[in-house]
Amino acid sequence: MPLDTSETQNLVDALDKFDSDVRSKAEAVLVKGAVQIKKNLQEDARGSRYFKQFAKKISYETTKRKNTTEVEIGPENDKPTGKNPGGGPGAAIAYFGGANGGGGTLDFDEPVEREFDSIDEYMKKLGDAL
Fold first, then answer.
1. 1 in any annotated domain
2. Residue 103 sits in which domain range?
3. Dist. CA 115–CA 10, nearest whole Å
């Protein structure tokens, strides 16, 4: 189920027309939201009987470009290591389930959507201040 972030993106796009100070404040709101979303996802993973280990792998990355700021949040893919030389299916099974059943017990949408209202509220306050 895709998440609808169009309203937040529309607001960020509108802020592109304002000076860099306002833009940096909007980016700070997005980063604050990303940190909280990361914490929500980690908390949800820690509560899982089978997928607790994914809590420490959940992170976020911010990419800034000329007119946009992107935030990517979620568990890092399993990378090959000495103990696990082949890598592994990782978070895909935890969130979406396996081809032969099992997994799919972690919910990505709810912990993320929990923060959308807060982000929108901060962005509205920033817009009202202008």
1. no
2. 6-78+87-129
3. 17
